[in-house]
């Protein structure tokens, strides 16, 4: 088949079999094959393709390692919901015009590749529901246009990298169901300089659930005034849940559950210092009781001083009674 096409759109059908590689396309062509039953390896076509939508099919095997070289003009690449395996090709990181990368719900493994340092065009990256491991690449690139980063349900580990604070136009960040450790970064919600756009100032969705994050919830997160969806459940967070600014609206207990050390509204767990006394008395009870004794002791000592001045009126029997009172408080 020797066709020269401007656009190919056969999405949402029941087409099956393999897609031929013999198609020829004109400049800036869009291919839309979403939601069919196509099988076999991902096809590689001419260098004129800018938008390639192959999601929700039955493609298998690896993403071609030279995909970024054969189709260098790609701006949108969607191969989600297939059975693709292997690693993410390094050549994808060299696609300078790539704006949307959706490779979720496959069987991909290995590490996330580095993207070119000068890349500023990325808007959407979705790599969720794979078996990716390692860390989020620490890069000096300033991805100022990245708005959606979805890396949930992988095997990513280590701490949340500080390089994420460069993504100042982020609307949605989903790191849930991984193996991230360390603390929630204090830079979330803080401004880099007084005049700059604050880190994640525009974020609406933040999901860091089902990891191994520890420590308190940074108060800087209360400054995320556009955030309407937060999920911190099933980590090792501790301390009091903030109750100011945007956190007044984040009142669903389920978004905090699974953190044994968290307390305060909207959870039913109260502050440990606000609690109920245990039978027989615990450390708090003893401290509280000791406070009462100290008050009494101070009162009695003041009497001693006063009576010392009036020593001529004080006899031995009264002094003995006073000493008994003091020792009974110790």
Automatic annotation (TrEMBL):
Entry's Gene Ontology cellular component terms: membrane
Subcellular localization, as worded in the UniProt entry: Membrane
Protein name: Uncharacterized protein
InterPro entries with a match to the protein in the record: Leu-rich_rpt, LRR_dom_sf
Lineage: Eukaryota, Viridiplantae, Streptophyta, Embryophyta, Tracheophyta
Keywords linked to the UniProt accession: Glycoprotein, Leucine-rich repeat, Membrane, Repeat, Signal
Keyword Cell membrane appears in the UniProt entry: no
Chain intervals for the UniProt region annotation (Disordered): 266-289
Keyword check for Ribonucleoprotein: no
């Amino acid at each position: 088949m020797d066709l020269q096409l401007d656009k190919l759109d056969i999405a949402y059908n029941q087409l099956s079999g393999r897609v031929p590689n013999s198609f020829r396309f004109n400049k800036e062509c869009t291919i839309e094959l979403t939601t069919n039953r196509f099988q076999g390896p991902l096809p590689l076509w001419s260098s004129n393709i800018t938008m390639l939508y192959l999601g929700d099919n039955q493609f298998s095997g690896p993403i071609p390692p030279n995909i970024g070289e054969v189709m260098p003009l790609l701006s949108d690449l969607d191969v989600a919901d297939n059975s693709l395996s292997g690693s993410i090709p390094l050549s994808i990181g060299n696609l300078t015009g790539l704006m949307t990368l959706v490779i979720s719900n496959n069987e991909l493994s290995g590490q996330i590749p580095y993207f070119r340092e000068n890349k500023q065009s990325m808007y959407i990256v979705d790599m969720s529901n794979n078996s990716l491991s390692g860390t989020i690449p620490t890069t000096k690139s300033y991805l100022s246009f990245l708005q959606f980063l979805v890396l949930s349900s992988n095997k990513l580990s280590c701490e949340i990298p500080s390089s994420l604070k460069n993504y100042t136009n982020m609307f949605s960040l989903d790191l849930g169901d991984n193996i991230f450790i360390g603390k929630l970064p204090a830079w979330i919600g803080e401004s880099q300089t007084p005049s700059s756009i604050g880190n994640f100032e525009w974020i609406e969705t933040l999901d860091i659930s089902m990891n191994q994050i520890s420590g308190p919830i940074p108060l800087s997160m209360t400054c995320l005034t556009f955030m309407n969806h937060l999920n911190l459940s099933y980590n090792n967070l501790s301390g009091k849940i903030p109750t100011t600014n945007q956190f007044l609206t984040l009142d669903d207990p389920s978004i905090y559950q699974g953190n044994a050390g968290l307390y305060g509204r909207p959870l039913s767990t109260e502050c440990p210092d606000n609690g109920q006394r245990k039978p027989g008395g615990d450390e708090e009870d003893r401290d509280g009781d000791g406070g009462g004794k100290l008050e009494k002791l101070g009162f009695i000592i003041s009497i001693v001083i006063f009576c010392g001045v009036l020593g001529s009126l004080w006899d031995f029997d009264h002094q003995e009674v006073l000493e008994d009172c003091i020792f009974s408080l110790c």
